[in-house]
Amino acid sequence: MSISQRNIPYDKYHGTGNDFIVVDADEYVPDRFDFATRYCDRVDGVSADDIGETNATAGADGVLFLHLEEKYRPPRVVMTLVQPDGSTAEMCGNGARVAAQWAMERTGATQVMIDTQAGTRHAWLVDGDIAIEMGEPSFAPEVVPLDRDEPLVAEQLEGYSVTGINTGVPHAVVFVDDVDKVDLDADAPPIRHHDVFPEGANVTFASERDDGGYDQRTFERGVEGETRSCGTGAVAIAAVAKHLGKLSRDEVVVSPPGGDLTVEIPDDGPAVLHGPVVHEFDGEAAITPPSSD
Fold this sequence. Notes:
Layout: E1 7-15, E2 18-24, H1 32-39, E3 63-69, E4 76-82, E5 88-89, H2 93-107, E6 111-116, E7 119-126, E8 129-133, E9 155-157, E10 160-166, E11 170-175, H3 184-192, E12 202-208, E13 214-220, E14 225-227, H4 231-243, E15 251-255, E16 261-264, E17 272-275, E18 278-286
Parallel strand pairs: 2-3, 4-6, 11-12, 13-15
Antiparallel strand pairs: 1-2, 1-18, 3-4, 4-5, 6-7, 7-8, 8-17, 9-10, 10-11, 12-13, 13-14, 15-16, 16-17
């Protein structure tokens, strides 16, 4: 017996190289775990090649299922991010910026509200870029969370000086002389899975540049590998740098491999993440695989 197959439309976006498949949540996807693990695959996942265009990157860092509520002013978007391993993430800075861009393209609005599992975030258009409130970073053990009663600040862990922080999701931040010299695949997983992080953590390495900005590399929980950009990681770098006295101003440029992000990190109030968003292509994906019969 053949298995019926239905195709649904999707859009592919990226924010400084952090790329996402975007699906309108009104489209019924019975198994979001299967959809994400299949189409985020970096070998066999979605690609512009599928629609006859040239694009070197297959797959994605996650699937954004977005429900747009246009009746509100500003419009609201309910965002669910399913990662390549099938897990969900409470927050994703670049993903939320992509969600904002997607909603703005459909409504003509220049401001939107993004409802995430980490709370509601205000996003707006600034000189062609998307800026989004990221909430107030927290070092509190119960918020990160940590398996201890005291904050983890610049303490030795797996051979590195590590600080634990939550910027919507947990991050282990490590400052090094040169991020390019870090063997991320070898050095990040022991920190990502360390017992002090009961829910695991993204592992973000940073090195200060001569201009006062920071280079960034992040091993993402749920992706289980390095991504070209991580917005919550950029905010984590800025917040930890300020906390440790490495940053005296309220704004800094953080540069993951995919491009530059600007982070505002005030003494009081939410952090703000600024950066570009690019709509790469759109296509259709089968939600039920064809029968092998």
